[in-house]
Every structure is written in structure tokens, then in C-alpha cells.
């Protein structure tokens, strides 16, 4: 690659060094410069793995990881979590009928209710999630099937959605807003929670639906199109996604600020999950001002408007209630992993120390290999 | 410069008519314009790209790029491939363009040189490129010859002129050229303008020393030889002016014909790398296959049912087709296991190492003002793996400064046996004196006189007499110079020569001999003769040459003298001197006439001219009378014994291949410590026939067998000395294995009396059978073949011109620099390259294999784990510089240590640091890292939420977490691998980490998103994710799990099985540990 034998300059005067073929130089010393860089004598730090550095490192890692692990484990254990599957696979499950009779064309919603009991009261804010299993939100074709410009309120993309949205790009000649497979498959079950009092009356548990999406998503990434404050005008000339029952500007009938692309349920759904089993934040049950627990122990009923079919692809739907700590939700793995890794490090440190000592006594008398 | 090259069929014969451009144009000969550049502005882009895409790796990436344009397959956006590819292509293109720019510049300069051309009867200045075949040009003193020209006439008598051919063959002495006599009178432009001779000659070729043609002029034929030609590249010297007829121009000249691309040498690491890249391709296809099968199963079992939410893309109607597409999609996203930047990085590192060699002050020779030079930049790491060194003797081990030391005249030996000059810098001319010899010259002993007369006549030295008495000799070989100078000091002064005469001053009297013939020296004849007629008219042939060839040609009458002289010769040779025998023969006028006729006949022959001439020479060099012998000393170079001792301690076997006599060679072997008195036996093989050589080899073999049998290792050290004629038989296909096994069992091998071709054959033999890296070092034209055939050729820029240097890969001025080149630079280069490759493969596997594991969780849909920008930048920004810095600057032990402990060189010879096993370890570590990097975030994040309850398991957070963990893990790994933290390493390691975070925050910023929402959809992700403690806990956990086992393994290896380099490295820190240093020094340091 770099070797060519003839160079016209070699014909020219005498064979000169690689670098200098400048002027007709007088007899100039070609002695290379005596710089640390050129002579490869740059000052350098030369670490070596000695027993004095490696063994303490192992012990230090061990000593740091184990307490962190214990802390994490305890924190995680203090978090209360309740999970219930309401897919309706079993014949005796309350949503069996709804699941069985699902039809894309039906206009009426099927409602089912699931009873459950909380053994322990949930203190502080309680977070309510819906969970899906075997749902491939991370499939390549699914992930790319969206138009972020459209979701950002760019007018041209509202009318001319990106090709990535195919086959959910247009419907009956009208552009779909929001387009794409992700939006089209928006989770549309409604979950309502009721506490059953001692006397058997159902009392609705108050939930908020604000603050479930990322701040940047809500305020930067997702924006409604057009200057018009009336969303139905802004979205004129577009079609709703084919699976949807209502238009994008009607998603939240209660709060007009929570409609269009900035509907938080919609935003949460659009942040696709990394794994086929995932949970998404649905509602927050705010802590009560007085000292009563947010969710006291006792019987509850969850009323579900069953709109979302998952049985066809063997999916599952769950509802999860969880409290939260500084490190997020329940996560036993992290604590256990830290304790394990810390212990292994510590143990390795001990083993290596023993080996080192045994070997050290041997070397003093013995051979050094060639 | 625009040169036009007509496309013509190969010439059979060249016809050139002087002063007739129209006639010559019929043949469309090439013009005198040369183009060594490859491109011009228009062709640069297409031609350079075309050349670059001939590289397999580049084509592969182009193929990937095309695949990515298919929307159903495209799993990565186009820029992830095109950015690195464009970067790699443009780096190479810039390099090529710079090279070519300088070539253009020198082409321009050469093509625009002025030369005087005879056009229509008058001399006109023309640019070189406008000179045509058939033009007559005028050359002046010290000018370069513009083309290959036929010398027509000169300003000197007899049509003589002198040239220097240093650019062609590296010989710095002057040579004579003579025009044929009929044209010698054409001295002025008017006569020349009317010259209309036609030359018929051979087509363009690259043979520098022969030319064969005929001049037809005025109905007569005149033979033309090389003696009549001035070749392009020569310089006219000591001649006022001369005229020549252009025969070959531009690309047809012998100079250009000789400049074909040299054979491209590849290192063993290169070959291994290519194999590994092929394996990785295979691996890639397997991975793609596995994932495609997975995709088929998934699409059949799940994807088909999932169609209510995610319908198949229109062309896909069944799972098999989907699997087919997914295979290609995975080939695209897994392509980073074959790193595109690998080759470029390797080149950059090698270039850096070459500069370090050029810059090394300790390989600079201040006497000759020459620094070491890496002429090939692609072989550096091979310098760390050399097992065999083939060395020339003269000029390589020795200084090639000859001093006349002893002589034997008519059976009487002269010379101070124990004379050693007190001052080592004393003028070599005065080293020799022997009262007896001076006496015998003075008294006029006829033999002594004849002896020195021979020395003053029989040579090809040119003299230059700047002022009266100030004679300067220019000799082709230093031996000749020494002999002529000796004769001069004893009163037989060679003054000057013309083609027909030699003028000498014999004991104060000027005598002019007419020179009848010179019977040239060559390697086969090993002798040269002159035939002269002295002023009295007596014709005498003087011959000097190797004793073996000369003794066969002597008159057998005086056997006693012959045997005494032979004894002397052997004595001299045993002292390590170079010997020559001298003889003469008187010729009668008739003998001379007869021989002269046959000589002329042979000279005119057009086919096998050389052979015929040699046969003619052989005829007359018979029946000679012995005069005596000369012995010339060639001193060893500084530091040679130490260097050889050090290199053999480094387990490098040194073979000396020399043209000298066996005794001389053995003696030099002793004086440079190759042979020692401790050696069990020095085996000498000097058989002349196949049988005797075979017999000798067999007996050595049995001898070894006896030695081996008791303990299965060869106890004791052996040395082998083999002579050229035995070697010729030993190199026969049926005997070479036997020879090889014997030779390789020996510690030192000396081949004497070998021809240049045999030197190359020996090298080829080792290359063929031993799979070892060979290095050939030499200084003369006879070493060129050996230098070219060895893996690494080293040229010593010494007394014998620069031909060896031009053919070499590395050049320097002193043999002793070889130890630094190999033990320091070679060792470091090898170490750095190996560490670089290990890490490079590791980091790419760690990076890429994460996609593979993710495949099992994303329906085998070829969804990438990371952001597209991260994939684009990972190899070229985030991880490239730290490993480059390591590959450039790493040192495990300082340079003086590797010279103190030559055993440190061994890992390179055994190929321990990077081989298939090491490669598997690297990629296993890479795959392990990828498993950790995927499954730890998977396990942690799948249920984790932010501290505000929002789940963390969204795709983008997962991507950021994994990418951050990856960059941190590979950075920690490079920090572990780097053993020598210079300021560059710090800047690059910390800088890369810093750039990762900076670039990520920039790419996830709102500004970019607002402008291009579809490209920068990770908006806000970096801050949202990286502010979560859980994410950092995950990264720390993954890093610990990746690094702790590596740390433990490395520590165990260091503790239980330390390599010598580790021990030496530790030594620096614990100088006072006497046990270690004592052990080491007892084992490794010879002195």
C-alpha cells in the first residue's frame, strides 16, 4: 500500500532521507530531535497489578457493594406492590366473557369487575400501572411506525404523514392523525378502582391522570398542531386511527387540556417499551392529607371497560398497584445482585490473598520461568 | 503535465532514425514525459475510489450500504454505515492525494528540466518531456542524462565520457562510456544535423548492464553495446559536453523499466488478521442465520397472530420470507463485528511506529550523518517476531574499509604479523610496512616489481588528478582501491587511463602501457585480467582472482611455489583476511592475434554474448605463472560481537552468508563471537559432489542422534560451516530437508563462497520449511536478492552504494543498530499491535453482540439496542482514540530493559501475544461483556421505575443505559490494558468519555429535536435517564461484573505465572529486591 519503489525525486540528486528533501541544504545534521516524544521517553504513569493494589480493590468493592445491596434490598422489601391479571383466560375469571366476545366492530363496551383484597395498607402515593405481556412494542417495524414531526404538531406532517406510518398512514384518503402502528394500538381499557367499605358500599378511589408522562415528552416532544384553540378544527381533514373509537381530540372528555397529541395516556403509550413484558403508568393515587393510608387494607373492586384484545396473540393484561421509594418501584434483583457481587469480590479477595501468600513463600526459594 | 501514451502492441524491434521525427513517429514510441503520479484532478475521485473498493472490507461496507437502501431490510439508517465508510475512505484518499501531489511535483520538476536538442541544425532548449526518440541532444558536465541515449561524440578525445550511475545501481565510482569510432568525429551541430544513421535495437527492457543494437549508416553496420549507451538517471562527469541520440525515452528508459512496483510484503499478523476477518464473516453469517431461524419461528408463532396490531409489510406474506429479510437486516446491524476502522487504524499505528524508528537518535550514525529509516511502513510488528537473521559479512559485519595487510611474493610472506596501530584512527595506508619488502622493492627484485606492476595495471579503478601529485582513486570495490593504493605506496603509481592506455609511474618513471583488453570480473569468473603491451612491445596478461579458480589455471611447473603460496593463503584466511592470488602470462604476438580475433567474434555475437565472451576469456587465462598473493583486512564494525551475542540470547539464529573463503569466514565468525571455543563442535561441510555432501550431512545427523539419544535434547552447541559448492547440492530438493534439520540444530551457520542467488535460496528454504520470520541484512548489490526474498530486508548504508538500501525495508548505517531495531522497536511494535488487536476485537464484539441477545426479546426483528447515532459514532469517536494511543505509545518495559533482558523478545517469536487462541479469548471476553451489558439492564430495568413512578423500561432509556454502560466498561478495560499512561493516553481516555456524554446530551437536546423531530427523537432522554440513581447503580453493577473477573484473572496470571516482562516491569519499582534481580541477571545477562 505504501511501498512504491520508484519516485522521480530519487532521480534527483542523492538519495535523501524520508522527510527532508527541501532545498539544496548544506551539510545539515540529520540527527533526529532529542524530544521526549520522538525518543519515546514521555513521562508516563505505569500502573502494575500488584497484590498491594488489586487485593485492596477487591475488598473495597466488596465493602462498598454489600452495604449498598443490603440498603437496596431493604428498601425494595419495604415497597408494597400488588398485581392482578384481568385478561380473562380462565373460564371462571370475571373478564372471560368480555375477552371471549371481543369484536373490533362492536360499538358497545363490555364491562367486567374484578374483586381483590389488599392485605396491607398502602402508605404514601400509590401508583397504578397497567401491564401487558407478550406485546412486542419493541419490534422494529412497530418502533419505527410513527411520525415524530406530526406528533410535534408540524402542520405539513399532519396532512402528509411520514411513509414510516404505513399501513396506518391514511384512511379513506384522509391522513391519519396520529399515524402509525404505535398510535393505532393505543391501550384503551379503562380501569376504575373502588374500595368496598365495611358496609358493602363501593367507594370510588380518587385518581389523578396528570404527571404520568415525562416532562420533556409532554412539553417538548408532543405538541398539538395549529394555532387554533379548538382542537377539532386543528385536526380537521384528518382521520382517527382505524382501531380508535374516538378522535384524538376527544381522548379525555373531562379535561380539554389533556386532549390531542398531548393526552398523557397517549404520550405514555407512545414511549415504547424495551421488552415484550412491560408496565406503563396509568394513574396516581395521591396520598391523603391526613394520616390515613392512601389505600387501606381491605376489599376492592376494579371495574374494567374491556376494549383491548390481547387473547388473540396470547397476551396478558395486568393491573399493578405500587408504592415508591427514592430508587423507584420494587426491584429485588438490584439489591440481591449487589450483595452477591460484593460477596464474590470479598471472597475473591480472600482467595487471592491466600494464593498470593502461598505463592509468595514459594517464590523466594524457587524458580522464575524463562 | 499531460503525457500521452499511445497504446501499441509490444515492440519486437526498435528502429530509430536520427534527425527524422516523421519517420520515428510512425512507430508511436513513448515520449520522454514520465508520469509516476497515478491521478489527476479529474480522475482522482473515480480512480481512487475504484482502487479503494478493491479492498474487500470497503466493498463489504458498500454492499451493506446498498442493502440498507431496501426499506424492508434496512435496520439501521443509512448514515450509520456511510459516515464511518466515508471517514475511512477520505482518510485513505487524503493520504493518497498527498502522496500523489508530491509525485506530481517531482514529475513536473523532472519533466520541465531543460535540455539542448538539435532541431533543424541548431541547438534549442527544450523541456525534457518534449524530447523525442530520434532527437540528438547535447549534454553538459554534471547534467543528468535526459533519456537513454546512444553516445555519438564527446568533447574528449576518442569519444570518451565519464558517467556516475549512483541513481541506477548505487555505484558511486565513475564509469567510462565511449562512442563508436565513426560517429566520434561528429563534434559540431552542423555535422550532427546531417547525421542520418538508423539504429535497430532490442525493445525496451530493464537490463541495466546490456544493450544490443546495430547502427546502419552510410551503408555500413556497426555493432552497439552497453559501452555506447548513456542511461537516464546517470550524471555526466569530467566531460565538457557530449552528443547523444535518443533511443529510449520516458517510460521506455531502463531506469523507468526498473521501477516496477516492488513485491508487497505482508506481515504474519496481516495474514492472521485476514483469516480472522474471514472467520468473523462466517460468525456473522451464523449469527444472522440463527436469528433468521428465530425470526421464522417467531413470525409463525407470535407475529402472525400479532398482526391485528402490527401487520406484515406488504411484500411479506409468510414467515419464511420475513426470515429471509431478517437475515439481511441482522447482517446489517451485526456488521460492526467486522470493524471497518480496523485496517485504517492498523495503518496509522504502523505509520507512527515507523516514525519512531526514523526519529530514534540511538540509531543515528553521526559519522555518516545517517538516521535509521523505515522505508516500508507496513512491517513493523514483524520486527518483533524475527527468528532467523541472514547477514552478509563484508560491509555488514565489517566496515568494508580495506587495508592492504599482507602479501606473499614468490613464496616469501611479508607483513607485520603483530602490528597493531596504537591509534585506531591511523590512516589505513600507513598500517602496512615491512622493512624487508621495502628493501626488496628498492633492490629491484623482479618478482616484487612484477607483483606491484600487476596491482597497478590489473584493475578498473578510475583516477582523478585534481592537481599534480594529488591523486584520487575511484574504485568499484574497496578491495581494488586498497590494492592500487598499496602499489602506489610501493612506487608503482597508477596515474590515468584511456580506453586504450594505462599510464603509470614506476619507481619515478612514467610508463604508458597500451591496454589491449580487459577481461572483466564477475561473480562466476571470480577473477579479472588485463592484457597490456608495454613500451617495449611485449604482450602480457595479468590476472588476479580467487585462489581456487586461479590455481587451476597455473602452469603446473612450479609446484613448490604453488604449495608455499597456498599455505600462505590459508594462513592469511585463518587471520580473517580477504585473499587474492596474482598471476601473469606472456603472450606471443600470434597468440594475441588469434585470441583477439575470437574475442571480436564473440563480442559481436548477438545471442549468448556473455557466455561466449566468458568462454573466450577462459581460453586465454590458462598456463599462467603465479606471482603471489595479497591479503586485505576488513575490520569488524563497532559493536558487532556484542550485538550478535545479544541477538543469539534473544533466541535469534544468525546465519552468515558470505562470498569469502571458508577460512576467512570462520575467522570472522570467531571474532564476532558467533563461533566460540566453548562450542562442542564446528561442523564443516565442503564436499564437491552430491554424494559427498549427502554423506557429510548424514554423518552429522548420526552424530546428533548419538548426542540426542541419552536425554532427547541436543546437549552442547554446534556450528555449521558450509561452502558454496556444497550448498548448491544441499539445496537440491531431495537434500534440502536433511540440510535444514542439521542446520537448524546448530547455533550458528556460516555459508561461505555463496553466490547472490544462493543467498536468496537459503532464505527461501527457511521461509518454506520453518514458518519463521526471516530478516536479511546486507549492504551490497549482491545482497539485494536476499533482502527482497526475506520477510524483512535491512540495508546497511555503507561503502557499496545504495542498491541494498533501495531494495530494503529498513535501512541504517551500522550493524549494531539491528539490536535496537529488533529488541526495542520490533518488540514494542509487536506488543502494541497485539494489544491493539485484542482490544479492538473485544470492544466490537462487546458492542455488537448485545443486538444478538436483544433479538430474542424483540421478535428477532433486527431492532437495534442503541440509538443510531451511537452506533455511528461508537467506533469512530467514542472508542477509537484511546486504543490508538495505546497502540502508539504503550511500553511494557523501558527500552534499556529489553536490551538487558533479551529473553523478553521470545513471546514475539513464539507468536504468543496475538494468535488464534488469544483471539478467541478476546472475543469470548467480548461476548461475555455483551451478555452482562444486556442482561443486567434487562433484569434491573424491566420492573424498575423512576423515582416519580414512571417505568424505566422504555426502549429509549434502555438504549441510553446500555450504551453508557458499554462505553464505561470498554473505557475501564482500555484503562486496564494500558500499561504506559502518557499524557496522550489520559487525554484520549478521559476525552472519549467526556465526548460521549457531551455528544449524547447534545443529540438529546431540544434544539436539535425542534429542527429535525424525526431524526432526534431521543429528546430529553439523556437527562431523564441519567438522573436516575437506579440507572447508575445498574451501570456500576454491570461494570463490576465485567471487570472483576478480568482483574482476578490478570492478577492470578501475574501472581502464579508471571511473564518475564511482568517481572522486569516490577523490577523498576523494586530495585532493592535483590532476590529477583539476582535471579534475573544470572539468567539473562551475558556479561
From TrEMBL, chain A:
Region annotated Disordered sits at 1-32
Q: Where are the transmembrane segments?
A: 48-74, 333-355
* Keywords on record: Cell membrane, Cytoplasmic vesicle, Disulfide bond, Glycoprotein, Golgi apparatus, Lipid transport, Membrane, Transmembrane, Transmembrane helix, Transport
Its annotated compartments are: Apical cell membrane; Cytoplasmic vesicle, Secretory vesicle membrane; Golgi apparatus; Membrane
Q: Name one Pfam family in it.
A: CDC50
Q: Does the keyword Disulfide bond apply?
A: yes
Q: Which GO terms describe its biological process?
A: phospholipid translocation
Q: How does it sit in the membrane?
A: Multi-pass membrane protein
Q: What is its main location?
A: membrane
Q: In terms of domain of life, where is this protein from? A: Eukaryota
Its Gene Ontology cellular component terms are: apical plasma membrane; endoplasmic reticulum; Golgi apparatus; plasma membrane; transport vesicle membrane
MF terms from GO for this chain are: aminophospholipid flippase activity
- Family named by the database record: Belongs to the CDC50/LEM3 family.
Q: Under which name does UniProt file this protein?
A: Cell cycle control protein
Automatic annotation (TrEMBL), chain B:
User: Where does the record place it?
Assistant: Endomembrane system; Membrane
Q: Which GO terms describe its cellular component?
A: cytoplasm; endomembrane system; membrane
Q: Which Pfam families match?
A: Cation_ATPase, PhoLip_ATPase_C, PhoLip_ATPase_N
Q: Which NCBIfam families match?
A: ATPase-Plipid, ATPase_P-type
What are the names of the required cofactors?
Mg(2+)
Domain (P-type ATPase N-terminal) spans 16-82
State what protein this is by name: Phospholipid-transporting ATPase
Q: Which organism does this sequence originate in?
A: Oryzias latipes (Japanese rice fish)
Q: How does it sit in the membrane?
A: Multi-pass membrane protein
- Please tell me where this protein is predominantly located: membrane
UniProt keyword annotation of Flavoprotein present:
no
Domain P-type ATPase C-terminal: where?
Answer: 805-1058
Cite the CDD domains for this sequence: P-type_ATPase_APLT_Dnf-like
Amino acid at each position: 500500500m505504501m511501498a512504491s519503489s520508484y519516485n522521480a525525486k530519487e532521480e534527483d540528486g542523492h538519495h535523501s532521507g524520508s522527510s527532508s528533501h527541501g532545498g539544496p541544504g548544506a551539510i545539515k545534521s540529520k540527527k533526529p530531535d532529542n524530544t521526549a516524544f520522538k525518543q519515546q521517553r514521555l513521562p508516563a504513569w505505569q500502573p502494575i497489578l500488584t497484590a498491594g493494589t488489586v487485593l485492596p480493590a477487591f475488598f473495597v468493592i466488596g465493602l462498598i457493594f454489600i452495604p449498598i445491596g443490603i440498603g437496596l434490598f431493604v428498601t425494595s422489601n419495604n415497597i408494597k406492590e400488588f398485581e392482578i391479571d384481568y385478561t380473562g383466560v380462565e373460564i371462571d375469571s370475571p373478564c372471560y366473557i368480555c375477552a371471549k366476545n371481543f369484536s373490533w366492530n362492536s360499538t358497545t363496551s363490555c364491562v367486567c369487575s374484578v374483586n381483590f383484597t389488599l392485605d396491607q395498607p398502602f402508605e404514601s402515593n400509590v401508583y397504578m400501572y397497567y401491564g401487558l405481556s407478550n406485546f412486542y412494542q419493541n419490534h422494529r417495524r412497530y418502533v419505527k411506525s410513527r411520525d415524530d414531526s406530526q406528533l410535534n404538531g408540524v402542520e405539513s406532517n399532519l396532512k402528509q404523514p411520514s411513509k414510516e406510518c404505513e399501513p396506518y398512514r391514511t384512511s379513506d384518503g384522509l391522513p391519519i392523525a396520529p399515524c402509525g402502528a404505535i398510535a393505532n394500538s393505543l391501550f384503551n381499557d379503562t380501569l376504575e378502582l373502588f374500595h368496598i367499605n365495611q358496609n358493602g358500599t363501593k367507594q370510588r378511589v380518587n385518581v389523578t391522570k396528570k404527571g404520568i408522562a415525562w416532562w420533556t415528552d409532554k412539553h417538548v416532544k408532543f405538541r398539538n398542531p395549529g394555532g387554533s384553540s379548538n382542537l377539532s378544527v386543528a385536526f380537521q381533514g384528518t382521520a382517527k386511527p382505524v382501531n380508535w373509537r374516538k378522535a384524538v381530540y376527544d381522548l379525555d372528555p373531562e379535561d380539554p387540556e389533556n386532549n390531542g397529541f398531548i393526552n398523557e395516556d397517549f404520550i405514555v403509550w407512545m414511549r415504547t417499551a424495551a421488552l415484550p413484558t412491560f408496565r406503563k403508568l396509568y394513574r396516581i393515587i395521591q396520598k391523603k392529607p391526613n394520616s390515613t393510608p392512601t389505600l387501606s387494607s381491605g376489599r376492592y373492586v376494579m371495574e374494567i371497560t374491556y376494549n383491548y384484545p390481547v387473547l388473540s396473540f396470547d397476551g396478558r393484561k395486568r393491573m399493578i398497584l405500587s408504592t415508591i421509594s427514592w430508587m423507584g418501584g420494587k426491584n429485588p434483583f438490584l439489591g440481591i445482585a449487589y450483595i452477591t457481587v460484593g460477596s464474590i469480590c470479598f471472597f475473591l479477595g480472600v482467595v487471592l490473598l491466600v494464593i498470593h501468600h502461598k505463592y509468595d513463600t514459594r517464590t523466594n526459594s524457587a524458580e522464575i520461568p524463562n | 503535465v499531460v503525457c500521452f501514451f499511445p497504446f501499441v502492441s509490444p515492440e519486437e524491434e526498435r528502429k530509430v532514425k536520427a534527425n527524422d521525427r516523421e519517420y520515428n513517429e510512425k512507430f508511436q514510441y513513448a515520449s520522454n514525459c514520465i508520469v509516476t503520479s497515478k491521478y489527476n484532478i479529474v480522475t482522482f475521485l473515480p480512480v481512487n475510489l475504484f482502487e479503494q473498493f478493491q479492498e474487500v472490507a470497503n466493498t463489504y461496507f458498500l454492499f451493506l450500504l446498498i442493502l440498507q437502501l431496501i426499506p424492508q431490510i434496512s435496520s439501521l439508517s443509512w448514515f450509520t454505515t456511510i459516515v464511518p465508510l466515508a471517514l475511512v475512505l477520505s482518510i485513505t484518499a487524503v493520504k493518497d492525494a498527498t502522496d500523489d501531489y508530491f509525485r506530481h511535483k517531482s514529475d513536473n520538476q523532472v519533466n520541465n528540466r531543460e535540455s539542448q536538442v538539435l532541431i533543424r541544425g541548431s541547438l534549442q532548449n527544450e523541456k525534457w518531456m518534449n524530447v523525442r526518440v530520434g532527437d540528438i541532444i547535447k549534454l553538459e558536465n554534471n547534467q543528468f542524462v535526459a533519456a537513454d541515449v546512444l553516445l555519438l561524440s564527446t568533447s574528449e578525445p576518442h569519444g570518451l565520457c565519464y558517467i556516475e550511475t549512483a541513481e541506477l545501481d548505487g555505484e558511486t565510482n565513475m564509469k567510462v562510456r565511449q562512442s563508436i569510432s565513426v560517429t566520434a568525429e561528429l563534434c559540431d551541430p552542423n555535422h550532427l544535423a546531417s547525421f542520418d544513421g538508423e539504429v535497430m535495437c532490442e525493445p525496451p527492457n530493464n537490463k541495466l548492464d546490456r544493450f544490443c543494437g546495430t547502427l546502419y549508416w552510410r551503408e555500413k553496420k556497426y555493432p552497439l553495446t552497453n559501452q555506447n549507451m548513456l542511461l537516464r538517471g546517470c550524471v555526466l562527469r569530467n566531460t565538457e559536453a557530449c552528443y547523444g541520440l535518443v533511443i529510449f525515452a520516458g517510460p521506455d528508459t531502463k531506469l523507468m523499466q526498473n521501477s516496477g512496483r516492488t513485491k508487497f510484503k505482508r506481515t504474519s499478523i496481516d495474514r492472521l488478521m485476514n483469516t480472522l476477518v474471514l472467520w468473523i464473516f462466517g460468525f456473522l453469517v451464523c449469527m444472522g442465520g440463527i436469528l433468521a431461524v428465530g425470526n421464522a419461528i417467531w413470525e409463525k408463532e407470535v407475529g402472525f397472530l400479532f398482526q391485528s396490531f402490527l401487520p406484515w409489510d406488504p411484500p411479506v406474506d409468510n414467515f419464511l420470507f420475513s426470515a429471509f429479510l431478517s437475515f439481511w437486516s441482522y447482517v446489517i446491524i451485526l456488521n460492526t463485528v467486522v470493524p471497518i476502522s480496523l485496517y485504517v487504524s492498523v495503518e496509522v499505528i504502523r505509520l507512527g511506529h515507523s516514525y519512531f524508528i526514523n526519529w530514534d537518535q540511538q540509531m543515528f550514525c553521526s559519522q555518516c550523518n545517517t538516521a535509521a529509516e523505515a522505508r516500508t511502513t507496513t512491517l513493523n510488528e514483524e520486527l518483533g517476531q524475527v527468528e532467523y537473521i541472514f547477514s552478509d559479512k563484508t560491509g555488514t559485519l565489517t566496515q568494508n574499509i580495506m587495508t592492504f595487510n599482507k602479501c606473499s611474493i614468490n613464496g616469501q610472506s611479508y607483513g607485520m604479523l603483530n602490528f597493531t596501530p596504537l591509534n585506531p584512527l591511523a590512516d589505513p595506508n600507513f598500517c602496512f610496512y615491512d622493512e624487508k619488502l621495502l628493501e626488496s622493492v628498492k633492490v629491484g627484485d623482479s618478482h616484487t616489481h612484477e607483483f606491484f606492476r600487476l596491482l597497478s595495471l590489473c584493475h578498473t579503478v578510475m583516477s582523478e588528478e585534481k592537481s599534480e601529485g594529488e591523486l584520487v582513486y575511484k574504485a568499484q570495490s574497496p578491495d581494488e582501491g586498497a590494492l592500487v593504493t598499496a602499489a602506489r605506496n610501493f612506487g608503482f603509481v597508477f596515474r590515468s587511463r584511456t580506453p586504450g592506455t594505462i599510464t603509470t609511474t614506476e619507481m619515478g618513471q612514467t610508463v604508458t602501457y597500451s591496454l589491449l583488453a580487459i577481461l572483466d570480473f564477475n561473480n562466476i569468473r571470480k577473477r579479472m585480467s588485463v592484457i597490456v603491451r608495454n613500451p617495449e612491445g611485449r604482450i602480457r596478461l595479468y590476472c588476479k582472482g580467487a585462489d581456487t579458480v586461479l590455481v587451476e589455471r597455473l602452469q603446473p611447473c612450479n609446484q613448490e611455489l604453488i604449495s608455499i603460496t597456498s599455505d600462505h593463503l590459508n594462513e592469511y584466511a585463518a587471520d580473517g583476511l580477504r585473499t587474492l592470488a596474482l598471476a601473469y602470462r606472456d603472450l606471443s604476438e600470434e597468440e594475441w592475434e588469434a585470441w583477439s580475433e575470437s574475442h571480436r567474434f564473440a563480442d559481436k555475437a548477438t545471442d549468448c554474448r556473455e557466455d561466449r565472451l566468458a568462454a573466450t576469456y577462459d581460453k586465454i587465462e590458462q598456463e599462467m605463472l603465479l606471482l603471489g598473493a595479497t591479503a586485505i583486512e576488513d575490520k569488524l564494525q563497532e559493536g558487532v560481537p556484542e550485538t550478535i551475542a545479544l541477538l543469539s540470547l534473544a533466541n535469534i539464529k544468525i546465519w552468515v552468508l558470505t562470498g569469502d573463503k571458508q577460512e576467512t569466514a570462520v575467522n570472522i565468525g570467531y571474532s564476532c563471537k558467533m563461533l566460540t571455543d566453548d562450542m562442542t563442535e564446528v561442523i564443516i561441510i565442503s564436499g564437491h559432489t552430491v554424494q559427498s555432501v549427502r554423506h557429510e550431512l548424514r554423518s552429522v545427523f548420526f552424530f546428533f542422534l548419538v548426542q540426542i539419544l541419552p536425554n532427547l535434547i541436543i546437549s552442547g552447541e554446534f556450528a555449521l560451516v558450509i561452502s558454496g559448492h556444497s550448498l548448491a547440492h544441499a539445496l537440491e530438493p531431495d537434500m534440502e530437508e536433511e540440510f535444514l534439520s542439521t542446520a537448524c540444530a546448530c547455533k550458528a551457520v556460516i555459508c561461505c563462497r555463496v553466490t547472490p542467488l544462493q543467498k536468496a535460496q537459503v532464505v527461501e528454504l527457511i521461509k518454506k520449511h520453518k514458518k519463521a520470520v526471516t530478516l536479511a541484512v546486507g549492504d551490497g548489490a549482491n545482497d539485494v536478492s536476499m533482502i527482497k526474498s526475506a520477510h524483512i530486508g535491512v540495508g546497511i548504508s555503507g561503502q557499496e552504494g545504495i542498491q541494498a538500501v533501495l531494495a530494503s525495508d529498513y535501512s541504517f548505517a551500522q550493524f549494531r543498530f539491528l539490536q535496537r531495531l529488533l529488541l526495542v522497536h520490533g518488540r514494542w511494535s509487536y506488543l502494541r499491535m497485539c494489544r491493539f488487536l485484542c482490544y479492538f476485537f473485544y470492544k466490537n464484539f462487546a458492542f455488537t453482540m448485545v443486538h444478538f441477545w436483544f433479538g430474542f426479546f424483540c421478535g428477532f426483528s433486527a431492532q437495534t439496542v442503541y440509538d443510531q447515532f451511537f452506533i455511528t459514532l461508537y467506533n469512530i469517536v467514542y472508542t477509537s482514540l484511546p486504543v490508538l494511543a495505546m497502540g502508539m505509545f504503550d511500553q511494557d518495559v523501558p527500552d534499556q530493559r529489553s536490551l538487558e533482558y533479551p529473553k523478553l523478545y521470545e513471546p514475539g517469536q513464539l507468536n504468543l501475544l496475538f494468535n488464534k487462541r488469544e483471539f478467541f479469548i478476546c472475543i469470548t471476553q467480548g461476548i461475555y461483556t455483551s451478555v452482562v451489558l444486556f442482561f443486567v439492564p434487562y433484569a434491573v430495568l424491566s420492573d424498575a421505575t423512576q423515582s416519580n413512578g414512571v417505568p424505566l423500561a422504555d426502549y429509549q432509556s434502555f438504549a441510553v443505559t446500555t450504551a453508557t454502560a458499554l462505553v464505561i466498561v470498554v473505557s475501564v478495560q482500555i484503562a486496564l490494558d494500558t500499561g504506559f499512561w502518557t499524557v496522550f493516553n489520559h487525554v484520549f481516555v478521559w476525552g472519549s468519555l467526556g465526548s460521549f456524554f457531551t455528544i449524547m446530551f447534545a443529540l438529546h437536546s431540544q434544539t436539535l429535536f425542534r429542527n429535525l423531530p424525526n431524526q432526534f427523537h431521543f429528546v430529553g432522554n439523556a437527562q431523564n435517564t441519567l438522573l436516575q440513581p437506579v440507572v447508575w447503580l445498574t451501570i456500576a453493577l454491570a461494570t463490576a461484573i465485567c471487570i472483576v473477573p478480568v482483574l482476578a484473572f490478570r492478577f492470578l496470571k501475574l501472581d502464579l505465572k508471571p511473564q518475564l516482562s511482568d517481572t522486569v516491569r516490577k523490577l523498576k519499582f523494586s530495585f532493592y529486591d535483590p532476590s529477583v534481580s539476582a535471579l534475573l541477571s544470572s539468567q539473562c545477562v551475558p556479561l
